[in-house]
Structures are given as C-alpha cells and as structure tokens.
Amino acid sequence: MQLGLIGLGKMGGNMAERLRRAGHEVVGYDHSPGKRDVDSLEALVGALSAPRVVWVMVPAGEPTRATVKELAGLLDAGDVIVDGGNSRYTDDQVHDVMCREKGIGYVDAGVSGGVWGLENGYALMVGGSKDDVAKVQPVFDALKPPSPTDESGQAVPGAGFVHAGPVGAGHFSKMVHNGIEYALMQAYGEGYELLAAVDLIEDVPGVVKSWTQGTVIRSWLLDLLVRALDEDPALERIRGYAEDSGEGRWTVEQAIENAVPMPTIAASLFARFSSRQDDSPTMKAVAALRNQFGGHAVRGIQAQEVERPA
C-alpha cells in the first residue's frame, strides 16, 4: 500500500526503509531537504491516492499537534492520520475529535524498537476504531517483528502487535511500557553500581554478561547494557545525567489519579531528577541535619569550587 510518512529521523527513516523492503510505497517528508521525497505537506498529500494514510513521526507536543492540525486541513473524508510518536494519550483524544468533524480517521500507535527496529521490527500498541486500524494494518504487519514460535513450532499470536482499544489506548499502553522501562533501567544501573563499588568483583562487565543467558533477569535492555560496557567498561566517557522524555512522569501522574500504587516506577523517575544535580540540595540538608543532631562530620566545599561559575 501507499503511506505518507512525516519525520524521517532515526526512527522514521528506519521505518520507511523497513516498509519499502516489504514492498510498500512510502512518500516521505522531513524538514531536512536531503531526506525527503516531497517539499511540503501539500505535496505529500497530493502524491497519495485516496483513501490516504499519513503517518506522523515527529516529536511529541506542539510539533505533533501543529502537524496533525495542518494535515486535518489538507486531507479528505475517509483518509487516516496515524500518530506514531510519543504523544500523551489525551492529545490523541483531542485530535480524534478534530479529525472526526471532517470525516478523517485517527489512529494512535505507540512504537517501541528504537534504532534497532529496522532489522528486528517494532512492537506496536495501537488505538483507534476497527475500521481505521484495518486501513493501516498492512503497514503494521510490515513493521512488527516476526511472530515467535512456541515449543511446537506454532506462531504465537499477538506478540509484537496489539489493538489495545479506542483512540488513546495505544499511547496509554506505550506510556506504561516506558514507565516499566524506567524501573528496569534503574534496577540494572543500581546493580551495576554495587558491583563496581566492591573490590571483591574483578570483572564487572563479565558478571553483567553472565546474566544474559539462563537467568530470570535476562532481557534486551540487559543485552544493551552489555554492549555499552563492551564499548566503555567503566562507563568513564558517560556523565551520570539522565533525561526523562515525559512518559515516566505521565505514568506516575496516572497512577496517582487512579490510586494505583507505583513505588518502583515513581522512585526510578525521581532518581533521574537526582542525576541532574551536581551537588544535591536535599543531601546538603541531610548532611547538615546529621551534623546538628549527632555531630556527624560534614564535607565542606573547597573555596575554588564555591567560586567556580555555574
């Protein structure tokens, strides 16, 4: 089938290539002239045959909102817009109402797979009506990973793709997925730090690598940690600073709103905030309190450090 794809960065560009390898026609648009097939959204819409399917793969928030709004003014009734970025599910619901007023379908697709998706496939969590999802299904089938097989050699249904529910369900599912990802990465990071902190362990990368086979904590994330340690065994070239892209915050907010206890994911989110503090104000207060009530020693800051510009 034909697909218009907006956003040809690391994810979008690889997705376009995977779709073309599967025999689909992709018309791509990007702000970068060197990547795109057409020079404008108008040209992209004009290059597609009705009913059109246009996949938006741009940063979440205002870039996505502006792109969907512009597309809604260019497309016709019966066309479908797919948001494959990391939008908040409430944005999807607003976009759906706007599109429905013009007879345009709307599908939200949570996509996981990162830069490895070109070869391995992308896990897809989709929200939308059955009719709209069906219009995009050939694209989903090309993007998703090959179905794994069970012990008898039969394909395992549902692995790598789910129609999770109505509009918003796809990105809500991806939000929770990323919240879990935060907690998994935090646990691996803490385990790595303890291994590296003791003299008893002489081969920290080797220990981590040993966990990748036969253990209950093996995972693709663990494989990626092994890869990182192969490249930089003591992680000396990396600063301990971690951003949060939004989904972790949104997951914790939804947990609060729905009274779902989520201490592990919440703690992993707060740990990322701590990573951005060179000298934590919280720990300054803790150190001062320990000194006040117990006379415990505090570590002063050197004069040159105080005078060092921020």
Q: How helix-rich are the residues, as a percent range?
A: 40-55%
Total DSSP helices: 13
Query: Helices and strands: which structural class?
Result: alpha/beta
Q: Sheet bearing the most strands, described?
A: 7 strands, mixed
Report the oligomer. Answer: single chain
Q: How many E strands?
A: 7
Strand content: 5-15%
Widest sheet: strand ordering: 2-1-3-4-5-6-7
Mean pLDDT: 91
List low-confidence stretches.
Answer: 303-310
Silhouette = globular
Q: Report the span from N to C terminus.
A: 54 Å
Rg, nearest Å: 23 Å
Element pattern in H and E: EHEHEHEHEHEHEHHHHHHH
Would you give an account of this structure?
Helices cover 49% and strands 12% of the residues. With 310 residues, the protein is an alpha/beta fold. The chain has a seven-stranded mixed β-sheet with strand order 2-1-3-4-5-6-7, sandwiched between helices. Helix 4 links the parallel strand 4 (80-83) and strand 5. The longest helix has 29 residues, at 169-197. The N and C termini lie far apart (54 Å). The model is unreliable at 303-310 (pLDDT under 50).
Helices and strands in order, then pairings?
Elements: E1 2-6, H1 10-21, E2 25-29, H2 41-47, E3 53-56, H3 62-72, E4 80-83, H4 89-100, E5 105-112, H5 117-120, E6 123-127, H6 130-143, E7 161-165, H7 169-197, H8 204-210, H9 220-231, H10 247-257, H11 263-275, H12 281-294, H13 303-307
Parallel strand pairs: 1-2, 1-3, 3-4, 4-5, 6-7
Antiparallel strand pairs: 5-6
Helix pairs in contact: 3-4, 7-10, 7-11
